[in-house]
């Protein structure tokens, strides 16, 4: 995991329990002697996330509606740190920090983890966009309940499912970075089958229903045409924002999507494309990043926005 990731070490359950005693009912001693939780139990995963966000990011209140995606915090934090390195490469090797850095999270979800980590680690400002009004309301409520986050994260509802940036990015508005964790299944059936396989891998009965920590709502898990179709639309719709966004990025969960993503970016005439590999345990994913600005334009961007 990334060297700056606060969650790169094994979970220190005694420390977590000291600050979040509500985690205690879910902690058990595994066969190898270490303390752990049942990661197939949505209530346990939710309690662990609350404890991690409180311990490492100072989030006193965090909650999501029943059935919404409850993501692993370490992997989300890794994305933000690698994205910070991407900005650093356009800034002489130094990560730009502070409110001058404006980040757009496409598909922020009710969990709002990317903006939480980016705000607490780098003091960035965020816009979180989503097509689900329930997710937007839940994220707004959570942020308002945390003084350290209030006023730092704006939320915008996307009213048109076919649009990604249109209707979200305001006229003349600029973003230094966009992040996204696209839905990577092509249908609800595919998503359900994947969730069931994960449950079985954790040793649960074959007949069990997929649990919310592996599930999430349809808009969080699947998109017609799958990850490839979503990335294609994102690339195509990024072109009109070529001078108003420095770096576009997207998580790519399936390596099979990469050749298509590169093809779409070549068609869009992206000036620079980077692939950043990430791993968490046995899970391997990658970030694809692209910009339409050359080195001279990136230098002008840096001087205008980050050197004030």
Automatic annotation (TrEMBL):
Xref: InterPro entries: METTL16/RlmF (IPR010286), rRNA_lsu_MeTfrase_F (IPR016909), SAM-dependent_MTases_sf (IPR029063)
CDD domains assigned: AdoMet_MTases (cd02440)
Keywords: Cytoplasm, Methyltransferase, rRNA processing, S-adenosyl-L-methionine, Transferase
Principal location listed in the UniProt entry: cytoplasm
Enzyme class: transferase
This enzyme's EC code(s): 2.1.1.181
Superkingdom, natural source: Bacteria
Reaction(s) the record says it catalyses: adenosine(1618) in 23S rRNA + S-adenosyl-L-methionine = N(6)-methyladenosine(1618) in 23S rRNA + S-adenosyl-L-homocysteine + H(+)
Subcellular locations according to the entry: Cytoplasm
GO MF term set: 23S rRNA (adenine(1618)-N(6))-methyltransferase activity
Function field: Specifically methylates the adenine in position 1618 of 23S rRNA.
Family per record: Belongs to the methyltransferase superfamily. METTL16/RlmF family.
Protein name listed in UniProt: Ribosomal RNA large subunit methyltransferase F
